[in-house]
Amino acid sequence: MIDSSLKPFAAKVRLAVFDVDGVLTDGKLFFGEQGEALKCFHTLDGHGLKMLQQAGIKTAIITGRRSTFVEKRASDLGVDFLYQGREDKINALNELLETERFSMDEIAYLGDDLPDLPVIRRVGFGCAVINAHPFVRQHAQAVTDNHGGLGAAREFCDFILEAQGKLEPMLAEYL
């Protein structure tokens, strides 16, 4: 579990940003007959993004690769902002901030590799998945217990919701 001493940072979050490969997927790429890269997403992670949105928190994806599968997944989940083909993730985030009113303190980011690190270090709540590159884990505020593509995004989402006092009421709706 993410260290509870970080709840004050997560309590401020109004925008949660996610990498894809290694975060919303396990990082493996499977190639189809036509050369398309196939990706596997976990439903637990997807529901976490939906819960953030239900709680009034905007969601974004910034990914270095382009994929119709990511576009479809983002659309299915109702992700507010999608930036694909962007290795320069901090520049993509800055572009988003040119049109949307968020301060860096109000942004959370979950990543796994070196292109994610500039964003992880700038935002108010910068996290890495447990199977992230060691250098990225070393510089993140928090590291998930779950692996990317296997519940790490849900853990991140639940932590934000819990820090804002929104998780328990949302869970109670299912009882």
Compact description:
The protein has helices at residues 7-10, 43-54, 68-77, 89-99, 117-122, 134-139, 152-163, 167-172, and strands at 15-18, 30-31, 37-38, 58-62, 81-83, 107-111, 125-128, 142-143. It is of the alpha/beta class.
Describe the model.
- With 175 residues, the protein is an alpha/beta fold.
- It has a single domain, classed as HAD superfamily/HAD-like (Rossmann fold, 3-Layer(aba) Sandwich).
- Helices cover 38% and strands 15% of the residues.
- The protein has eight helices and eight strands, in the order αβββαβαβαβαβαβαα.
- It has helices at residues 7-10, 43-54, 68-77, 89-99, 117-122, 134-139, 152-163, 167-172; strands at residues 15-18, 30-31, 37-38, 58-62, 81-83, 107-111, 125-128, 142-143.
- Strands 5-4-1-6-7-8 form a six-stranded parallel beta sheet, sandwiched between helices. Strands 2-3 form a two-stranded antiparallel ribbon.
- The longest helix is centred in the N-terminal third of the chain and has 12 residues, at 43-54.
- The model has no long low-confidence stretch (mean pLDDT 95).
- This is 3-deoxy-D-manno-octulosonate 8-phosphate phosphatase KdsC.
Adjacency order of strands in the biggest sheet: 5-4-1-6-7-8
* Inertia-based shape: globular
Q: CATH superfamily name?
A: HAD superfamily/HAD-like
Number of E-type strands: 8
Report the portion of residues in β strands.
15-25%
What is the radius of gyration computed over CA atoms, rounded to a whole number of angstroms?
15 Å
Helix content: 25-40%
- Give the termini separation: 23 Å
Estimated structural class: alpha/beta
| Average of the residue pLDDT scores | 95
- State the helix count: 8
Overall tally of structural domains? 1
Binding site for Mg(2+): 19, 112
Subunit structure: Homotetramer.
Protein name: 3-deoxy-D-manno-octulosonate 8-phosphate phosphatase KdsC
Enzyme class: hydrolase
